[in-house]
């Protein structure tokens, strides 16, 4: 007898969800596939605990609340400014609109991203004050890997985007705790701006698409210099200058990233707690099999290291890198 598992699942109230990529199995692929499945389950449960129905009048109160506390700053500032977020939620409560900060932040971003739709209801967010300049997304280079590893762990567990993480106090707290296992001294603002930097540098603009597709990663890979396995590498083997680092477990790419100081990031892999934070039920890192390769310089064959970084991440799909995304067609 054949069993229609889809029909049974539907009767039991299950639902089908789209995974970002086709499931794969074997070695590291099992980690990602299982993580995607568990992440969808946990994210759906997490979101099911949060009320999601808002009326136009509720959205009007959200816009009014933010306008009254923003002090000229852009709405996106709530992604990293805890003080502004606290003032925002306090004001919404005063307007008799009570909801978790994660929900209020999401509704605010929805209003910001859909101005024409809300304008039809008389709901507006004013222009930001040009004199109020927010800091640009940035990363403390010595700990760029810590920020990315923590983000990826949250993504695997919950299926969350970087905006999901930064908008939700529960998720952002978990992200910061993970990152601080390596980067103990970074502030919340540094960690959140670092997350925004990762989001920015894992994005391919439509205008650079044609140039991006022409890059030959085989030529770049051939130019990388191996400095040995982690159990034998010395930080002094790496120059204190810009370049791209590749970390591989035998032939499987674990991490690829441009860094402003290759020596500092190598030191973190050799002497810091980096490897222990990567361990999980699927994989225990072995310093004798994990090697480090470098491509020093600001450019390679006339192309910036930022662009090479993106291309190498796309081609090698390292397990601990945040994935690339493109502009919607």
Fold and architecture overview:
The strands form three sheets. The protein has a four-stranded antiparallel sheet, sandwiched between helices. The protein has a two-stranded parallel ribbon with strand order 1-8. Strands 6-7 form a two-stranded antiparallel ribbon. It has helices at residues 5-11, 28-48, 56-69, 82-94, 101-113, 115-119, 144-158, 162-167, 169-179, 188-201, 209-213, 217-223, 262-271, 274-278, 305-316; strands spanning 203-204, 225-229, 243-249, 252-259, 290-296, 299-300, 303-304, 325-326. β3 (243-249) and β4 form a beta hairpin. It folds into three domains: 24-50 and 135-203, no CATH class; 56-119; 205-319, GIY-YIG endonuclease (3-Layer(aba) Sandwich). α2 (28-48) packs across α7 (144-158) and α7 (144-158) crosses α9 (169-179). The longest helix is centred in the first third of the chain and has 21 residues, at 28-48. The chain is built from 15 helices and eight strands. It has 329 residues and is of the alpha+beta class.
Strand count, sense and closure of the main sheet? 4 strands, antiparallel
Number of helices: 15
CATH architecture of the largest domain: 3-Layer(aba) Sandwich
CATH homology group of the largest domain: GIY-YIG endonuclease
Count of the separate structural domains: 3
Structural class estimated from helices and strands? alpha+beta
Mean pLDDT, all residues: 85
* Strand runs, count: 8
- CATH class of the largest domain reads Alpha Beta
SSE pattern, N- to C-terminal: HHHHHHHHHHEHHEEEHHEEEHE
Secondary structure: helix percent: 40-55%
What name does the CATH topology of the largest domain carry? Answer: GIY-YIG endonuclease
Percent of residues in beta strands: 5-15%
Identify the overall geometry: elongated
Low-confidence parts: 5-14, 44-49
Please state the CA-atom Rg, rounded to the nearest Å. Answer: 22 Å
How far is the N terminus from the C terminus?
45 Å
Q: What strand order characterises the main sheet?
A: 2-5-3-4
């Amino acid at each position: 007898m054949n069993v229609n598992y889809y029909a049974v699942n539907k009767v039991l109230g299950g639902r089908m969800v789209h995974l970002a990529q086709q499931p794969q199995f074997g070695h590291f692929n099992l980690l990602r596939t299982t993580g995607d499945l568990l992440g969808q389950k946990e994210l759906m449960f997490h979101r099911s605990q949060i009320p999601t129905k808002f009326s136009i009048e509720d959205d009007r109160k959200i816009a009014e609340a933010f306008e009254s506390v923003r002090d000229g700053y852009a709405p996106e500032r709530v992604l990293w400014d805890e003080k502004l977020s606290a003032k925002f939620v306090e004001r919404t409560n005063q307007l008799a609109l009570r909801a978790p900060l994660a929900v209020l932040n999401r509704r605010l971003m929805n209003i910001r991203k859909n101005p024409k739709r809300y304008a039809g209801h008389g709901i507006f967010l004013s222009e930001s004050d040009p004199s109020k300049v927010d800091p640009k997304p940035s990363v403390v280079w010595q700990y760029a890997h810590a920020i990315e590893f923590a983000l990826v762990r949250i993504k695997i567990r919950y299926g969350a985007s970087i905006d999901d993480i930064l908008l939700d106090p529960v998720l952002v707290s978990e992200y910061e705790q993970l990152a601080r296992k390596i980067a103990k001294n970074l502030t919340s603002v540094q960690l959140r701006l670092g997350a925004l930097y990762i989001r920015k540098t894992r994005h391919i603009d439509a205008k650079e698409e044609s140039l991006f597709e022409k890059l030959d990663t085989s030529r770049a890979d051939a130019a990388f210099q191996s400095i040995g396995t982690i159990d034998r590498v010395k930080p002094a083997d790496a120059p204190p200058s810009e370049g791209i680092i590749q970390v591989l477990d035998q032939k499987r790419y674990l991490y690829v990233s441009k860094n402003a100081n290759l020596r500092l990031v190598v030191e973190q892999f050799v002497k810091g707690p980096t490897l222990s934070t990567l361990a999980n039920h699927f994989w225990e890192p072995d310093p004798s099999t994990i090697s480090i390769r470098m491509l020093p310089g600001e450019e390679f064959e006339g192309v910036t290291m930022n662009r090479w970084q993106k291309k190498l991440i796309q081609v090698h799909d390292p397990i601990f890198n945040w994935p690339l995304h493109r502009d919607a067609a």
